Amino acid sequence: MSAPIIDVKGLTKVYNGGFEALKGIDLEIRRGEIFALLGPNGAGKTTLISVICGLVNPSSGRVLVDGHDILDDFRAARSRIGLVPQELTSEAFSTVWDTVSFSRGLFGKPKDPAHIEKVLRQLSLWEKRKNRLITLSGGMKRRVLIAKALAHEPQVLFLDEPTAGVDVELRRDMWEVVRGLRQSGVTIILTTHYIEEAEEMAERIGVIRAGELVLVEDKQTLMASLGRKELTLHLREPLSQLPEALAHRSLTLADDGHALVYRYDGADDGEGAIADLLGEVDAAGITFKDLHTRQSSLEEIFVNLVKERT
Fold it and tell me: Which N-terminal stretch is annotated as signal sequence (predicted)?
């Protein structure tokens, strides 16, 4: 396996007054992945990103970006990072082209109109290149933020709440943009309050709470091991109570006795357990007209994780 593009070891941040924002964070980000960092407000997401991007000095620990120490070799490390903040702070009367080109110059990169054009086309901004920022919609301004971050050809792109405050349709457009960036070889790290965003896009999930990294896991593994599953049998005839033969099962009656609900952990032998259950239901003389299953969403898993560690 190739070396991680971001390698964080023992990272702490203690602010004046003694507040511990980060508590011994260890984290590796793989090249070319989309990694989602989830956590409630004040959990340490922004502080962690700010340290990795060289905007905040750590109290202890080490951060390597593509093998370059963020403190000892700041210029090389920072040049590999693009950061997309939540708000557009550029001069409102600048054009899209000038704004993005200026960002490239800030990193000491020579002018490269071909690259700027490529970025603007990739983000569907080419037709707006001569427009002043003040004339753009909120969604277009968000795309300009990404274009600015990509102007100096970074290998890693941090997206801080990339779709906060935008409508659902635009959010899905932005997801497509991010997927396209990943396909071009850029590593994506996003923080988000929209857990569906992480569920839709990320390959791995990190959960941070009170300055501690609670877990880092592949999304599918996380949902399989921590998710709860639910099987509902819609009965032909309602039951007033559970038959004695099924009392040992984790079953509950719902819908005024018209439904039997079976809940089990994602880590259980789901198929075998369900097959056994259906056999016992049949043996008890219960017939059903329909059944359906559902699995916990990432949001439910996240809420339960945070609760467990409160």
Answer: none
